[in-house]
Amino acid sequence: MAKRHLLSTADLTVDDANLILDTAQELASVAGRAIKKLPTLRGRTVVNLFFEDSTRTRISFETAAKRLSADVINFSAKGSSVSKGESLKDTALTLEAMGADAVVVRHWASGGAHRLANAGWIRSSVVNAGDGTHEHPTQALLDAFTLRQRLGSVAGRHVAIVGDVLHSRVARSNVHLLATLGAEVTLVAPPTLLPLGVEHWPCASSYELDPILPKCDAVMMLRVQRERMNQAFFPTEREYSRRYGLQAARMALLPQHAVVMHPGPMNRGLEISAEVADSVRSTVTEQVANGVSVRMAVLYLLLGGAESAIGNDEEGSAR
Amino acid sequence: MSGTSYVIKGARVLGEESRDLYVSDGAFAEAAPRGAKVIDADGCIALPGLVDLHTHLREPGREDAETVLTGTRAAAAGGFTAVHAMANTDPVADTAGVVEQVWRLGREAGYCDVRPVGAVTAGLKGERLAELGAMADSAARVRVFSDDGHCVSDAALMRRALEYVKAFGGVVAQHAQEPRLTEGAQMNEGELSGVLGLQGWPAVAEEAIIARDVLLAAHTGSKLHVCHLSTAGSVEIVRWAKSRGYPVTAEVTPHHLLLTEDLIRGYDPVYKVNPPLRSAADVEAVRAGLADGTIDAVATDHAPHPVEAKDCEWAVAAMGMVGLETALSVVQRTMVETGLLDWAGVADRMSARPARIGSVTGQGRSVATGEPANLVLIDPAAARVIEPGALYSLSHNTPYAGMKLPGAVVVTLLHGSATVLDGRVVER
């Protein structure tokens, strides 16, 4: 992959995306071994730069980097100079001076990762681990990986993405990637939670969930923040749940083979009922496991991996 | 200061046939004064000195971004002979003391007539009227009042402000931005804001306030000026209000005449501005509105910011762009080269009308014997690549960096005295 950064799934070609997914498939086999470690990124430094709390995403990236033998530095806004008013630029310069090869950045502002990559502050690779309400590309990649695993392929599949699309970086990244991979996507949300101009996105949209479900191969439920109802995006949690939540009765409208996805953390009882979350259709825990493999693949490919990720290096014992 | 006399040879006044101009004692003269300096204006367009209705000089309070001196030097370099200094300083220009300070600093600098704008409400807080009469009666003789940066969103307060300034022939310049519709807004609301995940700033937030205000202006019979309108809908509303004879005027910025929201794709905060860059259709509409006179004036909204205010994430960056030194070039590119305005039209929109709206005496007059010698000479055939570091402004947040723009200011005369010669600001 000729790219230096992963900022948006819109930047990925079909070949890029498939290379990442195929590499992740190779690397996934490492998780089944007794020693879950490859020497691939030995001596390289990966910084997890988190301006927003996300323990799950940080742990996933940290695990991925460590399985590739990279040195990992965790730098979070809390308890560091960032919370004392140090700018993104100065933080970036510090990391550059420390010799970071890749910076995995989570930022509350849309475009945070773009700025870090393109403002001329640093030379290292930048991986967007979620920027504001813009994108979360590795989430979309792990979702695609999960779809491939469960359904055999992504192309030609119909995926519904349900919930707060307006504020969702997961939805944006998934729309781009799934379209690139040839899936058919329908966004389902109340009109207040669909962005203006969504009709020009490479997907369909609907205000109603029930008519969409029977043709879905997968339903992706988005987390809904409870505060949204105070800003009049929807009247009450109960009404939201009734109209857009996935409960057992509604799940029955899905075809037999269809899966239910959620990027986590879930609001059980709001967008997804416990029964659905814990059902055999649910891929939630697989998504977490696949997240590590996909992030290993991304780090490996961005940091210059040209050959097969694990090659003949069985058990990582060569050399 | 007015001691120097000039013979300006071969200037094309308002783009007409070339002729010689004579300047002595601060005014245009009938014949060549003795001992006059000769300025070769071959091929140059002569316009009355430009008048900006909307300039942020930042002093007092943010002298790290701009001062009255540096800002008026930038203005002179851009061909301006008068600027209106916006009230959002620190302290706010909401008392006679502050507006007199800014006015006095302008006199001392000597590069432009500085006309302070007074705040409409105390502290720009939108709660109660500032002492508008005291500012009007002060040495600064304030006639334009604005809470620019903030909208006077309270309809009752806006009504009273409009009524009150009638007592001294004032005008209320409104920053039209409905606050509830723009909470947390980051860029024009449209397809692109949805894709970029930046919270939208809908056109209706501007248009709703303008619609309300033109009706208030009609109801009170008071003068309303609409600051930096930026949408096609805003142009329509002002056009309608003027067709009904309402006492309404409006301005547009150079950047809204040239730039569109597409520039935001890379999240570079140099393009972050209030009101936000809009769509190509809006750009077309404001150009048409300026051409047909619906929009009275081009006003720069020159908004200097120090480097760190823009060298950061989009969401935390300051809003605004510098514009004094590029305004005329942008107007040449967007209005003259497109055939929408001739040079007489440029003089009308950048000098005569803004001077009239701001009640600026001695500015915006014709280039004729006996009139004050406020003049700009432009070489329309010149082309320059904009280099931020070469700007006279203390701040370099120009959206035109690296862009090639037509035209160059060669000479600026302020009351008969050169502030710019050979394209360079005259030291004094």
Automatic annotation (TrEMBL), chain A:
Pathway of action = Pyrimidine metabolism; UMP biosynthesis via de novo pathway; (S)-dihydroorotate from bicarbonate: step 2/3
From the Swiss-Prot or TrEMBL record, give the protein name: Aspartate carbamoyltransferase
Q: Which NCBIfam families match?
A: asp_carb_tr, PRK00856.1
Biological processes, Gene Ontology terms: 'de novo' pyrimidine nucleobase biosynthetic process; 'de novo' UMP biosynthetic process; amino acid metabolic process
Q: Which UniProt keywords apply?
A: Pyrimidine biosynthesis, Transferase
Q: What's the superkingdom here? A: Bacteria
Q: Which residues form the Aspartate/ornithine carbamoyltransferase carbamoyl-P binding domain?
A: 4-149
Q: How does it assemble?
A: Heterododecamer (2C3:3R2) of six catalytic PyrB chains organized as two trimers (C3), and six regulatory PyrI chains organized as three dimers (R2).
Function of the protein = Catalyzes the condensation of carbamoyl phosphate and aspartate to form carbamoyl aspartate and inorganic phosphate, the committed step in the de novo pyrimidine nucleotide biosynthesis pathway.
According to its UniProt entry, this protein's organism is Actinocrinis puniceicyclus
Q: Which reactions is this enzyme annotated as catalysing?
A: carbamoyl phosphate + L-aspartate = N-carbamoyl-L-aspartate + phosphate + H(+)
Residues annotated for carbamoyl phosphate binding in this entry: R56, T57, R106, H136, Q139, G264, P265
UniProtKB/TrEMBL annotation, chain B:
Residues the record lists as binding substrate: H56, L57, R58, N88, N274, H305
> What is the catalytic activity of this protein?
(S)-dihydroorotate + H2O = N-carbamoyl-L-aspartate + H(+)
Q: Where does Zn(2+) 2 bind?
A: D148, H175, H228
Q: Does the keyword Kinase apply?
A: no
Question: What are the catalytic residues?
Answer: D301
Q: What HAMAP family has UniProt attached to this entry?
A: PyrC_classI_B
Name of the protein described by the UniProt record = Dihydroorotase
